[in-house]
Design a protein that fits this description.
six-stranded mixed beta sheet, 29% helix
């Protein structure tokens, strides 16, 4: 057995008769130093890869996440191990969360592209690398907060990865470039061996968020400003570091979206998208943040052991549960429970109920107030909707009952 120990990470990647993948690992993780040493029985690995005699696939087991063991080819085995790294790193760094997003350095700051399925995030990231920009992440971005809460992203030092086959809109020049920088690949993915990319631990402040809107028909690439809640909704559906307190995450993300603009990039072809981004982010209008951000602010840990209470049969009075956090981002209201389990987006009716129950209030009074505000909805429908929403708020630990 061998342990692969990454710089700055105590938990190793453990190899059982699988040393043959080490050259592939070095090509896929060129910017994050690691050593290959005899396995330390006292060290708990974050991931294990085992080779079996006569078996071309590798038996893979993640020890930091509840995912099934799987047989993978060498490239997919490393892909899955890298996804586990996104959990192992913040497990040892209480000042980090990880966003499911790409991030590219433009004019000294990071433009962050939250993951939107099939929007072309990885391909566009590679095209920006082709244009000479530094790729901090094409999938997972570690983020920390320093200098009075300013958000900074950190590079992992992992090679960009493309999903195969390339889209038809990629163009022959891009396809030729991909062939010249081709790294390890299989039928699903191709890693890119690009020189002079950011190494593990390099940091830059986050400057903007860009939501990708790839079109199926030719359109001119345009970048339009959107409300910050659009970016929040995109980030909300991604995997924040799950053991961090959701109130801390909500507070920090809200502050970041208040100072960093959010945009939507509507595009069809890569050349147009790259040109649009280059022009838009050639410079920043506000002063540059500090070059050396200093240590990150630690996040509290979520209390995942707390037993949530079910909805009671009777509800004499209901109130906002003490310790809950409510934040308005753009036009929407978001809540985090006192134990830090999750972030919840509220629809207008839920937001109205939340405002009403700042003080203990009977459910019948909630209905009466809402019938006056929304008479066209009808009492029966409002009564049903209120009961459903209160059940959800109670079940999420955001509301409790209060005898009065």
């Amino acid at each position: 057995m061998r342990d692969v120990v990454f710089q700055g990470l105590a938990a190793p990647l453990r190899l059982h008769e699988a040393e043959a993948i080490l050259p592939i690992l070095r090509d896929i993780v060129p910017g994050w130093g690691f050593v290959d040493v005899p396995a330390d029985p006292s060290a708990t690995p974050f991931y294990s890869i085992s080779a079996k005699p006569g078996e071309p696939l590798l038996w893979c087991d993640c020890h930091i996440d509840d995912r099934p063991k799987r047989w993978y080819d060498p490239v997919n085995a490393i892909c899955d191990a890298i996804s586990a790294l996104a959990l192992a790193l913040p497990a040892e760094r209480p000042d980090l969360i990880c966003l499911h997003a790409a991030a590219v350095a433009l004019a000294g700051r990071l433009v962050v592209f939250p993951n939107i399925r099939r929007a072309g995030k990885s391909t566009l990231t590679a095209a920006l690398a082709q244009a000479g920009f530094g790729v901090f992440s094409d999938d997972v971005l570690p983020v920390f907060y320093a200098n009075a809460g300013r958000a900074h992203g950190a590079a992992l030092g992992i090679a960009p990865r493309l999903r195969l086959p390339l889209p038809q809109t990629a163009g022959p020049e891009f396809e030729h470039w991909v062939a010249t920088v081709s790294g390890p690949s299989n039928r699903q993915y191709r890693y890119l061996a690009i020189a002079d990319q950011p190494r593990h631990g390099e940091t830059l402040p986050i400057g903007a968020f860009v939501i990708l809107d790839r079109q199926e028909e030719p359109v001119a690439a345009t970048l339009s400003k959107v409300s910050p809640d659009v970016a929040m909704d995109a980030l909300l559906h991604q995997n924040f570091t799950r053991d961090r307190h959701s109130a801390d995450i909500l507070r920090h993300i809200a502050a970041t979206l208040a100072e960093c603009p959010a945009f939507q990039l509507t595009y069809f072809d890569l050349d147009g998208a790259v040109a649009c981004l280059k022009e838009a982010f050639a410079a920043w209008s506000d002063p540059a943040p500090a070059t050396h951000p200093g240590p990150g602010q630690p996040f509290r840990m979520a209390d995942l052991a707390y037993a949530l209470q079910g909805a009671p049969d009777t509800r004499p009075h209901l109130r906002q549960r003490p310790g809950s956090l409510a934040v308005t981002i753009g036009d929407k209201r978001y809540l985090a429970d006192p134990e830090g389990r999750a972030i919840h987006r509220m629809d207008p009716l839920a937001a109205a109920i939340w405002a009403i129950i700042e003080d203990p209030t009977p459910s019948e009074t909630i209905v009466d107030i809402l019938v006056e505000v929304f008479p066209e909805a009808g009492r029966d429908r409002i009564t049903s909707d209120v009961a459903r929403l209160l059940d959800g708020l109670l079940g999420s630990g955001l509301v409790d009952t209060h005898p009065r």
